[in-house]
Amino acid sequence: MRDIVGPTLFLVRHAKSSWADAGLTDHDRRLNARGERDAPRMASRLADRPTAPELIVSSSALRARATAEHLVDALPGAELRIDPRIYAADSRRLLEIVHGLEDRFGSVALVGHNPE
Fold it and tell me: What domains can be seen in the chain, in order of their start residue?
């Protein structure tokens, strides 16, 4: 049997976010202290993989963007894109986003939310 090798897709949930400021919209919630501590660890683990993401596509929500920025910091040369369509997207929309990406990327990470 032949091995089939193709692009790699990583689905990344944002790091732990803060509920401290009740006046913020859901979209504008930040990472909490635990999220700020754990996001670089998660990024380091991805960086250690042989197929580390070359492109990171993040939701426009602040907590997802902050998580994605930690990924970019750990992945020299990785490109970051912010795509507001990821916020509150269903699986069909996420697949549309992935299928719309250029073929030049061998590995991509989508950074989003639950339940997406």
Answer: 8-112 (3.40.50.1240)
Closest CA to 58 of 76, 47, 42, 72: 72
Please determine, for residue 116, whether its predicted confidence score (pLDDT) is greater than 90: no
pLDDT in tens, 13-25: 999 998 888 888 9
Cα pseudo-dihedral 70, 75, 79, 81, rounded to 10 = -20
Helix axes 33-47, 62-74, angle to 10 degrees: 40
Distances, alpha carbon 114 to alpha carbons 6, 7, 48, 87, 88, in Å: 26, 24, 25, 10, 9
* pLDDT tens sequence across 29-61: 999 999 999 999 999 999 998 889 999 999 999
Evaluate whether 59 touches 65 at the Cβ level (below 8 Å).
yes
